[in-house]
Design goal:
The structure is a homotrimer. Chain A has helices at about 5-10, 60-80, 105-120, and strands at about 25-30, 35-40, 40-45, 45, 85-100, 130-135, 145-150. Chain A is of the alpha+beta class. Chain A has one domain: 60s Ribosomal Protein L30, Chain: A (2-Layer Sandwich), CATH 3.30.1330.40.
């Protein structure tokens, strides 16, 4: 199955990639690498999970938030790569988790994103990862996720406007 | 206008790039990419903004701190690239903001840095970004900023000593 | 001295590289670069330093924790590079320090890792670095460290399984 077919089989649809925010952009390509900006768990234009884990948001919900942020990152990557079939490797995923005092299960939350990449891409979806807790995130999001990927094809130097 | 002319028109001067701290260095070049170490809002050898946002440092001051850290990163980049005209792309900016409980406007703070890169470099200054809150930073700085950039020219493998 | 001889002279042995955790892997190689996942201060399969700095763990202990996490990252890098002599440059080190309120000496903690890289590799061990405080880390580890390195040799596209 192609990544697009795999997405469909999981009942997932890529959201429209977010518009440029201001002086920073959804992603930048340099050589074979694409760096995707930190993504929040937006769904249909609304932040779906806000607050601290596990007091405001359960671990399961936070994992879903990480999956949602990953889906947004994939939407950006799909546009940058023209097609997800041009992705050669998910290289690195950074996950920041809005953590209540004493919460130390950040890996379980980040797995929500990591599992999605593996489901969509198989072996080339397995990535290096850093998952850490932080005390506050933009808009009180439960999770922020950034992504670095390698492209196989070279559809010209491209950057989202 | 060249980046240097643009800096001048903004009334800005690059500070002397910081000396190597110890076992780590201001930046490392690998292929086309330069990774700049985390920079604090130093001005004339003194940390200009310390404490948490927005309780000790206002959002506007914190944005100025981010701009200052960005200027220090540019000074390092300018030395690594021989000349800022050799910069092909600002690739990724990571901004860590010393956040008081309940502060969720990290993007407004990070814009202080992002806007500077766009002002100096135009389109190639627009970058991928991750901005997150943290509970503590080195020397109680209000902001720490790290940078990845792509160079166009290849003035030999170079690393600041 | 080769890096392996240097390790030996310091009385250090690389631990067995950690097994893949799940959907993420110990490291990913893309072109000349290897991205190593966030490492904790594991020793003989046990987390050696847990809690916040400096209340639960002293600065000196935390620096030792950073050194231990760096040693684990080196074990992964050694396997990815076939041999540490194939490492061309330690590029970037990210250090997250589990920080008690008011702790601002993150650089002293991170030096535990930075010094090790310089001891083992000399000049090519000197790296770009970002060291920040965070309020919580996985498994309550005192430190988490991630690493990007450049390889000189190309032993084929390789990724730890």
């Amino acid at each position: 199955m192609t990544p697009d077919e795999k997405l469909k089989s999981l009942g997932l649809t890529l959201p429209p990639p977010p518009k440029p925010v201001a002086s920073y952009v959804p992603c930048v390509r340099t050589g074979h690498l694409v760096f995707v900006s930190g993504q929040l768990p937006f769904k249909d234009g609304k932040l779906a999970f806000t607050g601290k884990v596990p007091t405001d948001v359960s671990i399961e919900q936070a994992a879903e938030a990480a999956r949602l942020a990953a889906l947004n990152a994939l939407a950006i990557l799909a546009e940058a790569a023209s097609n997800l079939e041009n992705v050669a490797q998910i290289v690195r995923v950074g996950v920041f988790i809005n953590s209540a005092d004493g919460f130390t299960d950040q890996p379980k939350v980040a797995n929500g994103a990591s599992d999605l990449f593996a489901e969509i891409f198989g072996d080339i979806g397995r990535h290096a990862r850093a998952a850490v807790g932080v005390n506050e995130l933009p808009l009180n999001a439960a999770v922020e996720l950034e992504l670095t990927a390698e492209l196989a094809a070279w559809p010209g130097y491209f950057r989202l406007k």
